[in-house]
Write a structure and sequence with these properties.
The structure is a single chain. Helix 3 runs antiparallel to helix 5 (54-66) and helix 6 packs antiparallel against helix 7. It is built from 19 helices and no strands. It has helices at residues 2-18, 21-26, 29-43, 45-50, 54-66, 74-85, 90-102, 110-121, 126-138, 146-157, 162-174, 182-193, 198-210, 218-229, 234-246, 254-265, 270-282, 286-298, 302-316. The protein is elongated and about 75 Å long. By secondary structure, the chain is an all-alpha fold.
Length: 318
């Protein structure tokens, strides 16, 4: 029994060490803290790190970068990540690049960030490859170069990295760095969407909604909008509301339309606030209509202001 518990503990520690940071960061906070605590205790990280142990140096870098059992200390995180990165630790090279790019507690230094991201990317680190694509797409520390962005996204995308697949889809849709090809955009969006990437799910749904990749397919659009909306994607919530309100690609259902409009409106979506306000207006719920239309009007929505001109005199005479 104790041997099984010990082996399980070691396995959890190894998971913390080898898993990509994006996966580790997606774990519940108590799980990450528990993993990190076991790792620090098991490997006696500080004395080993001082003696040059790479894994211990990485663990200390993670501790200070994430603020586990201590205050966040980016400078201390850089110190330990750099020592591990200088010993060719790929994860530390990537994390060091992210720290220099983020500006969290450190001056932003894109050239230094790229230096370390390149080191990790050339060894096959997919997040580093995708991040370099973002640097080129947005001209961060380098001349804006969509072709270079597409090449780096492609390297990560072909290894199954969802963010890179989504970004590559965007380039194909807009014809940036590659020949415009909505069918290719659809292909890459679907790969990312099948990994629950909410932005890719929305974009894929919108391709079917708009017909940009071929004929319109409102039912397929609703499917992908719903998948993205369930993850909180505000645009998907709004368009799913539109489909239910109009009976396009989904059964006409004013209650469901209002529900999805409200979810988007609560996230500040101007048109969703308008639509929700109009629903309340036509249902003679003027106080609720006034609330949502006011929020839309404050964002400059002219139609909301027109409705308010009708509502407010009535409310003022109550």
């Amino acid at each position: 029994m104790f041997r099984w518990i010990y082996q399980k503990s070691i396995l959890l520690v190894l998971l913390l060490i080898v898993l990509p940071s994006a996966i580790v960061n997606s774990l519940p906070e108590y799980t990450r803290i528990g993993l990190h605590y076991r790792a620090l205790m098991r490997f006696k990280a500080l004395p080993k790190a001082k003696k040059g142990d790479v894994l211990s140096q990485r663990l200390l870098g993670q501790r200070y970068a994430r603020g586990l059992f201590t205050q966040k200390n980016p400078a201390e995180a850089v110190k330990w990540y750099r020592q591990a990165a200088d010993q060719a630790d790929i994860t530390s090279q990537f994390e060091l690049g992210k720290l220099y790019a983020s500006g969290e507690g450190l001056p932003v230094d894109y050239p230094e960030a790229l230096k370390w991201l390149y080191k990790a990317a050339e060894k096959g680190h997919v997040e580093a490859q995708s991040n370099i694509g973002t640097f080129y797409e947005n001209g961060m520390g380098v001349r804006q170069d969509y072709l270079a962005a597409a090449k780096w996204y492609y390297r990560a995308a072909t290894q199954g990295y969802a963010d890179a697949q989504f970004n590559l889809g965007n380039l194909y849709l807009q014809g940036l760095g590659v020949k415009k090809n909505p069918a290719k955009a659809e292909e890459w969006y679907r790969k990312a969407a099948n990994q629950s990437h909410s932005e890719a799910q929305f974009n894929l749904g919108y391709l079917y909604y708009s017909g940009e990749a071929g004929g319109r397919d409102y039912e397929r659009a609703a499917k992908w909008f719903r998948d993205a909306a369930d993850q909180g994607n505000v645009l998907a919530q709004y368009y799913l509301g539109l489909q239910y309100s109009r009976g396009v690609g989904a059964p006409k259902d004013p209650a469901k339309a209002a529900d999805w409009f409200q979810k988007a409106a609560e996230q500040g979506h101007e048109d969703a606030q308008l639509q929700l306000g109009v629903i309340y207006y036509h249902n003679q719920k003027l106080d609720e209509a006034n609330e949502w239309l006011t929020l839309a009007a404050e964002q400059g929505n002219a139609e909301a202001k027109t409705y308010l001109d009708k509502i407010q005199p009535v409310l003022n005479n109550k």
